[in-house]
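Section 3.1: Structural characterization of target chains.
Under the original work plan, the team committed to producing a structural model for every single-chain target entering the pipeline before any wet-lab resources were allocated. The record below documents one such target. The sequence was received from the expression subgroup and is listed exactly as submitted; it comprises 209 residues.
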Amino acid sequence: MKQIILIRHGALDESLGGRYIGSTEAELSAAGRNQLQAIGRLLNDDARKNVYASPQLRVRQSVEAAGLDTATAREDERLRETSFGLCEMLTYAEIVERFPGITEHWRPGNADFTFPGGENTGAFRARVRSFLDELLGTPGPVSTIFTHGGVVNALLEFLLEIPAAEIWRYAPERGSISIVKRSESGHASLRLLNFRPGLLENGVTPWQS
């Protein structure tokens, strides 16, 4: 049995709210650091042994905020967020206004879609799949992955065999942790989804957030 812990980086500055942040480098906000500190308090010794991370700044800062040694976390380029190209830093409304007709092709499950000047969706999913295939062949009962929302969604899709067109329903939030357990036979089960421990520590229940 292998336990796969998926952690999305923490919150960014409020000025970036609603904007598409993919390849753009952005720092964690103070709230984001607090979110990852709360997650770090949940991670036992096993969860700290086999750590993988995106090399992007907000993820490296998340690893550090969680109390892990960034020098021992194995950074992997395949865990980067997708590049939104010319759509980086824009809101959805701004993207639709600037690129009329984009919504005809920009939809879940369309592997042929490419963001203007950005990354092809199929290529993004293929690199994440490549990482997962290698990960499943590594020893150890627990693997912890610090990464981005799009990557978490893709990993959940592959592990749980979720139709690509439906994966948007899982929507991992910044500063959240999800856990999948996978048996030696290949059966995977979702044990935790989109949990933000900082909410409970601050007296806020998930349905109030």
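The two ends are 33 Å apart (CA to CA).
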